[in-house]
Structure formats: C-alpha cells, structure tokens
Specification:
By secondary structure, the chain is α/β, with parallel strands linked by helices. The chain folds into two domains: about 55 residues, no CATH class; about 160 residues, Metalloproteases ("zincins"), catalytic domain (Zincin-like). It has six helices and ten strands, in the order βββααββββαβββααα. The chain has a four-stranded mixed β-sheet with strand order 4-5-7-6, with helices on one face. A three-stranded mixed β-sheet has the order 1-3-2, with helices on one face. It has a three-stranded mixed β-sheet with strand order 8-10-9, with helices on one face. The chain is globular and about 55 Å long. It starts with 6 loop residues before the first strand and ends in a 12-residue tail after the last helix. The mean pLDDT is about 85.
Length: about 240
C-alpha cells in the first residue's frame, strides 16, 4: 500500500466477511472477521489494490476545493431544515449555538476570530439536533418495525454512519443530517434490523429487503454519501 493511503485494521467479532471502508477523512479502514489471518487480509488487499487506489484518489479529490472556512448556513436535507448562521462575539468560556425557528437563524455564541470554537459550538448544536430529530425518527420506525432499542447515542464517527450493539444500544452519526432522507431511513432500517440479527448474514439482508427492496443501491449510495458532509465539520 502506498504511504499516502492512510489505513488501519480493525477486528470485529460481528463481521462475517472482510470489508474495506474508504472515506476522505478517515482514510482506509479494513474490517477483519475474527477468524481471518493477516496473511489472508494482505492477499485480499493486494488483489484489490487498483480499486482501493482509484477510490482513495477520487475521495481525496472531493475535498480539494471543499469549503473549509466557517459556514454561512446549514442545509440539513435529512430533516428538511435550512439555517442561516449568525456569529455573535461572546466573552463567555462556554461556546454554544441557539436556533430561532421563526427567523430560521442559528446564532453561534463564540469569538468569530476563533474558528475552532465556532466549529465546536456548531458540532454541539448538530449533535443535539440529531438527538431530537433522528432520535424521533428512529423511535417511530422502531415501533413500526417492532424493533425497540434501549439506548440512543449520537456521535460523530469518521467512517461509520451508525451501529447497533448486542445490548440494544443504537448509535447514530449526527452527520446523517446532511444526507438525503431516503438514505437516512435506509440506515435506520439497517441498524434496527441488527436488533434481530447482529451479523450481515443472508438472513439479515432478507429482513432488510422486506422493508427496503432497493437496499443494494441505497447501500452503495450511502457509502458515497460522505462527500455530502461539509469539510468544516471534520476540522478540529
């Protein structure tokens, strides 16, 4: 592997097949089933090297001209919201953001000259908004599908849109807010079905297909959807 292609290994007791996940921010993640040897993994990577290199180069090209400065607005397509942003200088140590639904303005209380502080405030607000909106969608969909989870986590993973653990903890990425609604619904169906089948066996995909007949295309589109996450979100 070329050094320019950052990648790391992760063993997963749930994984049944070797997976390669590529995002412009996290690089190349190799998810390895417990019984796979490193020799077997290296052989697989060697056979897929051309595809991995091409995909990685395409991913990197997506962020070359990306907007990395503070955003003037947030387009949260997943929930149909558009917020204009007003940056308000604040002497307080606590950085935060507050939304006014009537005006459609999101005010960030932080020193505008400290972009990192503003980004932290925005990420904090996105996390809270995701808990409210995506949490409600997950609860409603779970009730319809008969798949109830015990706990909801909202995180900011760099290479995973969501996950569901054996103790019925549903974890969602707040960056889902930037995606199209149909992709978010598919992700929710996918993770909720893991409450019935933890692995990615044939039985699992049959359950997913029951509720999302077009899951193959949705899964592919979801893998490409990292390009829809604004670049500033990933900057410390």
């Amino acid at each position: 592997m070329p050094d320019s292609m950052a990648y790391h290994w992760r063993r997963s007791p749930r994984a049944k097949q070797l997976q390669v996940r590529i995002t412009p921010w996290q690089g190349i993640e190799v998810v390895i089933p417990r019984h796979y040897s490193k020799r077997r993994v290296r052989a697989f990577l060697a056979s897929q090297q051309n595809w991995i290199r091409a995909t990685w180069q395409r991913m990197k090209s997506q962020i070359v001209d990306a907007e990395c400065t503070l955003p003037a607005a947030l387009d949260l397509r997943a929930i149909g919201e558009y917020w204009r942003i007003n940056y308000q200088r604040c002497g307080s140590i606590r950085k935060h953001a507050a939304a006014d639904a009537q005006t459609g303005i999101l005010t960030v209380y932080a020193d505008p000259s400290s972009e990192s502080g503003c980004r932290r405030a925005l990420r904090g607000w996105l996390t809270r908004r995701a808990r409210e909106s995506l949490g409600m969608q997950a609860a409603q969909l779970g009730q319809v599908l008969g798949c109830g989870y015990r706990r909801l986590q909202i995180r900011g993973q760099k290479s995973r849109w969501g996950s569901c653990s054996s103790n019925k903890t549903l974890s969602l990425n707040y960056k889902l807010l930037f995606l199209e609604p149909e992709l978010v619904r598919y992700l929710l169906v996918h993770e909720l079905m893991h409450l019935r089948v933890l692995d990615h066996s044939q039985r699992f995909w049959k359950l997913v297909a029951t509720h999302e007949p077009g899951w193959r295309q949705l899964d592919e589109d979801l893998g490409e959807a990292w390009r829809d996450v604004p670049a500033w979100v990933e900057i410390p």
